[in-house]
Amino acid sequence: MESNKSVWVKISFVVSFLLLIVKFYSFYITKSTAILTDALESIVNVVAASFATYSIYLSSRPKDDNHPYGHGKIEFFSAGVEGTLIMLAGLFIIYQAVYNFFFPNELEHLLEGIVLVAFSGLVNGVLGVVLKKKGKELNSLTLEANGKHLLADTMSSFLLILGVIVILLTGLDFLDSVIAILFSFYIIYSGYGLVRRSVGGLMDEADPVAVDATVKAINDNRKQNWIDIHNLRVQQYGGDRHIDLHLTLPYYLDLGQVHDEVEELESVLEADWPGVMEVFVHADPCIPDMCCHYCQITECPVRKHQMDTKIEWTASNMSKNQKHYHELI
Questions:
Q1: CA angle (188 as vertex; 182, 189 as ends), nearest 5
Q2: Backbone dihedral angles phi then psi of residue 205, each to the nearest 5 degrees
Q3: Helix/strand/coil for 277
Q4: Mean pLDDT (whole number) for 66-85
Q5: Which of these, 146, 211, 228, 285, has the minimum number of CB atoms within 10 Å of its CB?
Q6: Residue 31: left (phi > 0), alpha (psi -120 to 50), or beta?
Q7: How far apart are CA 187 and CA 143, in angstroms?
Q8: Which class would CATH give 2-202?
Q9: Mean pLDDT of the region 216-241
Q10: Residues in domain Cation efflux protein cytoplasmic (predicted)?
């Protein structure tokens, strides 16, 4: 899996580097600040792809004594670096646009520049769609972030083309700086989104998608002996997922039976995830006076109360650090 990630991120680097040359040539022949915004974002693409290559390599390394949870978090850092670079590029574009507003360049060969930018945007769009798809398939935030960035770059390129066409038709050269500033705000916003997601991952912010997927896998394979699951925590680092939870089982099971139930739950979760999965299950004994009310075991030898409530397992109640009988109080 990691070799596939590496291949795609290298392809991204080569394509980004070639398009960087095309876009700067377009700026060279047109002297358009708006087109410069596209060229500067391509520098970000190249730097981001370079860092992503190292990120993919490092995240693929197995866990060791110094990194007991593996190296997957580097992908969050990679996305954060890319977002920061995008924001810096946006700020520089604003500076350049304001400068050119007061000291304008004479725009030239706009039609040729439009063709070159359109070609670059089309290539970026195709590559962006592929990288985003591969990022989801390979559980790589780095590839997915790179794909989203290229798609945003494509959208900005084609909107930029519309703006340059307006300049070409109207002859109002000052619009070049106005368009550049408008696009710089979009670029900064795009970079902020990546940085926000990166910080959330580095701070172990709850990932609703990962939690919901885990809850669904458990519900789809729910067993009678699994009376209660609570204190569920899900962390995802790149292609690695770590799950901690408490499992309430009948108190009369012997140690071997408890072990089998825990292993079955672990197998259910591991089968639902294509990447590396690490599950830690803490087994709790049931409390008959409390748990009998929602215990689904049909032939329980020690039942004290009839089952009168079926508690649906959701991300909300499974994440709480308490048995579900608290919901009945």
A1: 95
A2: -65, 140
A3: strand
A4: 74
A5: 285
A6: left
A7: 19
A8: mainly alpha
A9: 88
A10: 225-286
